[in-house]
Amino acid sequence: MEFNTQDMKKMTQIAKKMQGKPEDQVIQELAGMIRSGQGGLTPQKAEQMFQMIMPMLTQEQRQKIQKLLMELRD
Predict the structure, then answer these.
(1) pLDDT number for residue 66
(2) Extents of the domains making up the chain
(3) I need a labelling partner for 7 at 20 to 30 A (CA). Which of 16, 22, 40, 41 fits?
């Protein structure tokens, strides 16, 4: 499964809208958006994207992505 820069831009725009909200709320909302298709990504495509960028992230960022991935898998 492939993704492109358009997908990354969508996720960035969504993340900007979430700024200022509690982390757990953001993770739940993002997971819900991805599951429903509102984010423009399927859960599988989102997971593939996150797995690809994780090596470039800090430990703290990786932990947040892991929380989101766990929420997507539930």
Answers:
(1) 94
(2) 41-74
(3) 22
3-state SS, residue 51: helix
pLDDT band of residue 38 (cuts 50, 70, 90) is confident
HEC secondary structure over 13-26:
HHHHHCCCCCHHHH
Instruction: Judge contact between 71 and 27, C-beta under 8 A.
Output: yes
Give pTM, 2 decimals.
0.72
What is the C-alpha separation between 25 and 59, in angstroms, rounded? 20
52 with 5: CB under 8 angstroms?
no
pLDDT bucket at 69, cuts 50 / 70 / 90: very high
Q: Any residues with CB less than 8 A from the CB of 47 and at least 6 apart, and which?
A: 69, 72
